[in-house]
Amino acid sequence: MNSPNKPISLRGCLAIVLASLVLAFGLYNVHAQADVTEGGVLGLTLLLYALFDLSPAVTTLLLNLLCYLFGAKVLGRKFILYSAVATGSYSLFYAILEQFPPVWSGIANYPLVASLVGALFVGVGCGICVRVGGAPSGDDALAMALSHKTRLPISLVYLSTDALVLGLSLLYIPFTRILYSLI
After folding, report:
1. How far apart are the first and last CA of the chain?
2. What is the pLDDT of residues 72-106, one digit of tens each?
């Protein structure tokens, strides 16, 4: 991750915008089509879409904003600004992608492939954002703030929030598909 003392750069912002496109592409074309989900905010947006037909383009923005506000006292200004670029870009790209049919409509027939390909998109998209110094999801802000408040290890906070969302996802995803989501 970049040093928090370095200023925000145009190059960093462009990398985050590209990474957010990769993430939105994977979540729209793989996860949402194959009933493979994520934990945390990304998974919660897919849950809200499945249960209430609320677009992830909108819910991602709102949920992340709430997480960033909650974590603002713990996180630095640079993280918040880069994360705002990531969240806004992700929401914009997801909204654009929703205007087109999915690229791999039959991927739902191959849940193992979908979970691996989806993980690749999520890993690359989120990994680039984190490397630059931000995050496309409020999970990071929320996990850091909860860890600070509860004094629990951040890994346990991430695991707990992911497990909660995956458990709730059983409302619309069969148990066997949740197992693929764990991959």
Report:
1. 25
2. 777 778 888 998 899 899 989 999 999 999 998 88
